[in-house]
Amino acid sequence: MPSFKYKKQESGLFRKVLRPVIELEAYSEVTNDWLVLQNILADTGADISMLPRSLGEALVLDIMRVKKVQIKGVAPEARVNVYIHTLKFKLNSKQFNLPVAIADSDNVPPIFGRVKGLDLFNANFKKGKVLQL
Amino acid sequence: MAKTYSYVVLVEKKPVCKGKNLKKMLKEARKKYPEKKISIRYEYPEEILVAIIQI
């Protein structure tokens, strides 16, 4: 069972904050190989996984080949335009197809959400220090 | 940590470049290290992160 130590990061509110970020491998149809993606926020509040635009473009030849849709965050007016693709991911030896919303902006963090992502694992967030998947 | 995002490209877990133009950085890393394992790290901007996403 892979485990990931929370990482200390800067925060505008707390100065420092520990976040449950993980590492995943993703298959790139651009480079035709597996790339390791680091600093992916494991987020039980996210229905779908998300990648910032440049990261999406490193994996998908043409992110705009699918219809653009809008998703929303904690504030209903905060909407993000995204392109939803199903991409191949690996965590340890487990390979899975993950629906991912590729944002049209780089100002969104990479997120590992629930649908066909976190829901595949027995996620155990241990006292704000370690995430086991 | 910066006020805005950036990307770090790592080769065999060692950082080789940092910036915003990920496409260019990846191309250069792949050219220079064709057989090595490449990783990409998104550096978070310094801000409050509340990530709730609804489709």
Plain-language structure description:
The complex is a heterodimer of chains A (133) and B (55). With 133 residues, chain A is mainly beta. Chain A is 5% helix and 53% strand. Chain A has a single domain, classed as Cathepsin D, subunit A, domain 1 (Beta Barrel), CATH 2.40.70. Chain A contains one helix and twelve strands. In chain A, the strands form three sheets. In chain A, strands 4, 5, 6, 7, 8, 9 and 10 form a seven-stranded mixed sheet that branches. A three-stranded antiparallel sheet of chain A has the order 1-12-11, with no helix packed on it. In chain A, a hairpin with a 3-residue loop joins strand 2 and strand 3. The longest helix of chain A is centred in the middle third of the chain and has 7 residues. Chain A starts with a strand and ends with a strand. Chain B has 55 residues and is an alpha+beta fold. Chain B has one domain. In chain B, strand 1 and strand 2 form a beta hairpin. Classes of the chains: A mainly beta (133), B alpha+beta (55). Chains A and B meet through strand 2, strand 5, helix 1 and strand 7 of A and helix 1 and strand 3 of B. Strand 5 of chain A pairs parallel with strand 3 of chain B.
Determine the mean pLDDT of chain A. 93
- Give the strand order of the largest sheet of chain B, numbering strands 1, 2, ... along the chain: 2-1-3
Q: Tell the overall outline of chain A.
A: globular
- How many domain units of chain B? 1
Offer a few descriptive terms.
heterodimer, A: 133 residues, mainly beta, Cathepsin D, subunit A, domain 1, seven-stranded mixed β-sheet, three-stranded antiparallel β-sheet, 1 helix, 12 strands, 53% strand, globular, B: 55 residues, alpha+beta, 3 strands, 20% helix
